[in-house]
Design goal:
Radius of gyration of chain B: 13 Å
Order of helices and strands of chain B: EEEEEEEEEEE
Number of strands of chain A: 11
Largest interface: A-B, 26 and 29 residues
Strand content of chain B: over 45%
Strand content of chain A: over 45%
Number of helices of chain A: 0
Number of helices of chain B: 0
Oligomer: heterodimer
Helix content of chain B: under 10%
Helix content of chain A: under 10%
Distance between the termini of chain B: 37 Å
């Protein structure tokens, strides 16, 4: 079945860029997502990319998609302490849009 | 801003007991989901629900699990006879399917602890 993998931890200094990487196995997913989870809260959609795009930029966020290598990345420019959270990569699986998630990358931002 | 709510935030139960986890999806949404996350593991899809019936379910969602939308507002997940391995965070999500990217809105989760 579909599998999504991502590294578990990333630590950066405030003001630096953060890059969170994800790989997936099934290339048929039409949409790929990044969700953010803050402590005590549910998962919140941060951004998504359509599979026929290579890049999507949304303010400080840049999503890169390499379909050949089945690699998705999320870049956060000028990372702030408020960006500290767990970031989940997800792809669509099934006909009803259920999501397949990675384990999540815990981003720690040091002042 | 509308949000998905879940109750209780934490449920502790004895092995073999029945539990019901409750969710109130966003009011105009039509698609509902349950996911779970065992500590340290991935968020896993359990079941999707549309038009008052299960539309898709995973291998995890066996006969011990059931879902219901009893009153047009709540969406519940019942575990008939809990096992130790059911201990996890359970997330409810809803979607209106209007957007092609199918944004799912998640609740804050219910932490289930089975002793």
């Amino acid at each position: 079945g579909e599998d999504v993998e991502q590294s578990l931890f990333l630590s950066v200094r405030e003001g630096d860029s953060s890059v969170i990487n994800c790989t997936y196995t099934d290339s048929s997913s039409t949409y790929l997502y990044w969700y953010k989870q803050e402590p005590g809260a549910g998962l919140q959609l941060l951004t998504y990319i359509f599979s026929n795009m290579d890049m999507k930029q949304d303010q400080r966020l840049t999503v890169l998609l390499n379909k050949k290598d089945k690699h998705l990345s999320l870049r956060i420019a000028d990372t702030q302490t408020g960006d500290s959270a767990i970031y989940f990569c997800a792809v669509r699986g099934g006909s009803q849009g259920n999501l397949i998630f990675g384990k999540g990358t815990k981003l720690s931002v040091k002042p | 801003e509308p949000e998905v709510t879940q109750t209780p935030s934490h449920q502790v139960t004895q092995m073999g007991q029945e539990v019901i986890l409750r969710c109130v999806p966003i009011s105009n949404h039509l698609y509902f989901y349950w996911y779970r996350q065992i500590l340290g593991q991935k968020v896993e899809f359990l079941v999707s629900f549309y038009n008052n019936e299960i539309s898709e379910k995973s291998e995890i969602f066996d006969d011990q699990f059931s879902v219901e939308r009893p009153d047009g507002s709540n969406f519940t997940l019942k575990i008939r006879s809990t096992k130790l391995e059911d201990s996890a965070m359970y997330f409810c999500a809803s979607s209106d399917w209007a957007a092609s990217y199918n944004e799912q809105f998640f609740g804050p989760g219910t932490r289930l602890t089975v002793l």
